[in-house]
Design goal:
- This protein has 463 residues and is of the alpha/beta class.
- The chain folds into three domains: 167 residues, Glycogen Phosphorylase B (Rossmann fold, 3-Layer(aba) Sandwich), CATH 3.40.50.2000; 70 residues, no CATH class; 207 residues, Glycogen Phosphorylase B (Rossmann fold, 3-Layer(aba) Sandwich), CATH 3.40.50.2000.
- Helices cover 40% and strands 13% of the residues.
- The chain has a seven-stranded parallel beta sheet, sandwiched between helices. It has a six-stranded parallel beta sheet with strand order 10-9-8-13-14-15, sandwiched between helices.
- It is globular, with a radius of gyration of 23 Å.
- It comes from Formosa algae.
- This is UDP-glycosyltransferase.
Length: 463
C-alpha cells in the first residue's frame, strides 16, 4: 500500500458533491498532499466543477451499482422494519414508524415488503435476532461481486475510503471488499434526521456524525457499534456561510436575479413533495397574507432541488408582483430521479446570499433554519394543516424525532394558521431579536461547534 494518502470518495448521488467535494474538506486533503479518486454512478462531467474549484486532477471511475440479491434485500428490509419498531418503542415516538412506506404499484415488491413486516415484527422482539439477520443480509452478497471490488481496490490502492452517505445498500459489497483488504471505510450520516430511520445500509470502520446529539443517537440505536468508531466531526455544509467572498453587494444580487433591492426580502423555502405535499397551498396562503404589503415586501421562492414540478405555477402566476421564483442552480437528471441531481457550485453562493440578504425564511421543518441562523436570521415554521386529509398532517412532521433537539428552546417562529402569517412575518422583519431567540443555541445542538473546524476534523479523520 502506498505511503502517500490516497482517499477514495464513493459518491452515490449529487448531494455528496455539494456538501463534501465543494467544501473545504478537499482543500485540507490537498494540503496534506493526498491523492483523490472518485467512484460514482454519476457521469464524470459532473465533477468538472470540483476539479476547477480546487485546481486538482481527480481519478474517476464509473461505479455500476450491483443489484441486491433477493434474499439480501428481504433480510435488509425485515431488519429495517424491526429496527423501526424497536426505535419507536425506545423513544416512545410513533412517528419513527412513519419512515416505513409500502411501495406503490409493484405487486411483487409490495409482497416482499409485507413479508418483511411480518418477519421484522418477529425480529424486533430480540435485538440479537436483528443483528443475526443483518449479518445474513450481508453474507448474501456473492463472492463474485465482492472479488470484483477487491480486484478494483487492489489496483487503485486507496489508503482510506469515504462514502458520502450511509443510505445506499448496493455499496455494502465495497465495504466488505475493503474490510478484507484492511482498508478503512468512513461514512457520514447523511442528514440530521437520518439515524432513527434505520437506514444504516453500509458497514464502516468510522461513522462521522454532526453533533453530540447524533453521537448519542448512534449509541442508542446501534449499541453494537463501538464508541471509538463514532467520530464527532460536524458537517461541512455550513462552511460556505463563513466565506465572506461569496457575499454579493445587495444591488448586484438583486440585479442578478431580478429582485427589488428597496424591499424587505422574505425567503419561502420549498420542500419535496413527499415531505410537504401541500407546499403550493402554503405558498398561496403566504401570497394572500402578504399581498397588501407588496410595496414593502418581496417573497423569494426557492424550490426544493428535488422538485421542479409544475405544482407552484398557479400561485407564482397569480402573485407574480409579490413572489419572485429564484430556482436552485442544479444539473437536473433526466427521468426525475433526484439522486442524479447535482448542485452547481454557483448555487452555493446563491444560497449564501439568500440567507445574508433576506430578513427571514418560511418553510415546513427544513434545515434552512440552521442556514439562516448562520447570519442570525430567524426561521418561521408553518404549523397548520392547509387542508383536511387522512394521508398527511403537520402534527406528525413536528413530532419527528429530530425535532426533539429543540426541546426547551425558542428555536423558530411558529405560524399556527394562515391568519397569523402576516403578523409573524412583520415581527420577524421589524423585531427579529424577539422571535426565535434561541436559534443559534438550537443550531449548536444540531451541528458541532465551532463550525469552522469541521472540515479539517473530517479531513484529518480520512487521513
Amino acid at each position: 500500500m502506498s505511503l502517500k494518502p490516497h482517499i477514495l470518495f464513493v459518491v452515490p448521488d449529487g448531494v455528496g458533491i455539494k456538501n463534501y467535494l465543494y467544501s473545504d474538506v478537499l482543500k485540507h486533503l490537498i494540503r496534506a498532499n493526498a491523492k483523490i479518486s472518485i467512484w460514482s454512478p454519476l457521469p464524470e462531467s459532473v465533477f468538472d466543477e470540483v476539479k476547477t474549484l480546487h485546481n486538482i486532477a481527480i481519478g474517476y471511475q464509473s461505479l455500476v451499482l450491483k443489484k441486491e440479491p433477493l434474499l439480501t434485500r428481504f433480510y435488509r428490509e425485515a431488519t429495517t422494519y424491526a429496527r423501526l419498531l424497536r426505535n419507536t418503542a425506545l423513544k416512545n415516538n410513533p412517528t419513527i414508524l412513519s419512515n416505513w412506506n409500502l411501495p406503490k404499484g409493484n405487486f411483487k415488491l409490495k409482497l416482499l415488503y409485507k413479508a418483511a413486516m411480518q418477519m421484522g415484527t418477529y425480529l424486533s422482539k430480540d435485538y440479537k435476532r436483528i443483528l443475526h439477520y443483518e449479518t445474513k443480509s450481508r453474507d448474501g452478497w456473492s463472492a463474485k461481486v465482492i472479488s470484483e471490488y477487491i480486484k478494483d481496490l487492489e489496483t487503485l490502492q486507496p489508503t482510506s475510503i469515504f462514502i458520502t452517505h450511509q443510505r445506499v445498500a448496493s455499496l455494502m459489497p465495497i465495504c466488505i471488499a475493503a474490510q478484507r483488504l484492511g482498508i478503512t471505510v468512513h461514512t457520514v450520516i447523511f442528514s440530521w434526521d437520518n439515524v432513527p430511520k434505520a437506514r444504516l445500509c453500509v458497514m464502516a470502520d468510522q461513522y462521522l456524525v454532526w453533533s453530540a446529539w447524533m453521537k448519542n443517537e448512534m449509541h442508542d440505536y446501534y449499541p453494537e457499534i463501538e464508541a471509538s468508531k463514532i467520530k464527532l466531526v460536524g458537517t461541512p455544509q455550513f462552511d460556505f456561510y463563513l466565506d465572506k467572498t461569496k457575499i454579493l453587494e445587495r444591488n448586484k444580487f438583486a440585479e442578478q436575479y431580478g429582485l427589488d433591492p428597496k424591499k424587505h426580502w422574505v425567503c419561502f423555502s420549498g420542500d419535496d413533495i413527499r415531505t410537504s405535499p401541500y407546499d403550493a397551498d402554503f405558498l398561496m396562503d403566504v401570497g394572500v397574507a402578504l399581498s397588501e404589503y407588496q410595496d414593502d415586501i418581496q417573497v423569494i421562492f426557492r424550490r426544493c432541488p428535488a422538485d421542479f414540478s409544475a405544482r407552484y405555477d398557479a400561485v407564482l402566476q397569480r402573485y407574480n408582483s409579490l413572489i419572485k421564483s429564484v430556482d436552485p442552480l442544479w444539473h437536473v437528471a433526466k427521468g426525475g430521479n433526484w439522486t442524479g441531481n447535482v448542485s452547481k457550485y454557483e448555487d452555493v453562493a446563491m444560497q449564501v446570499n439568500l440567507a445574508y440578504h433576506c430578513k427571514t425564511v418560511i418553510n415546513l421543518g427544513s434545515t434552512m433554519a440552521h442556514d439562516f441562523s448562520m447570519y442570525n436570521k430567524p426561521c418561521l415554521y408553518l404549523n397548520y394543516n392547509p387542508c383536511t386529509t387522512s394521508d398527511w398532517n403537520v402534527e406528525t412532521i413536528y413530532n419527528y424525532q429530530h425535532f426533539r433537539t429543540m426541546t426547551g428552546l425558542d428555536a423558530v417562529g411558529w405560524i399556527p394558521s394562515k391568519d397569523h402569517i402576516a403578523a409573524v412575518v412583520l415581527k420577524a422583519i421589524g423585531q427579529p431579536e424577539t422571535i426565535a431567540v434561541d436559534r443559534k443555541a438550537w443550531r449548536d445542538v444540531v451541528v458541532r461547534q465551532p463550525i469552522e473546524d469541521n472540515s479539517i476534523l473530517i479531513a484529518n479523520t480520512l487521513l
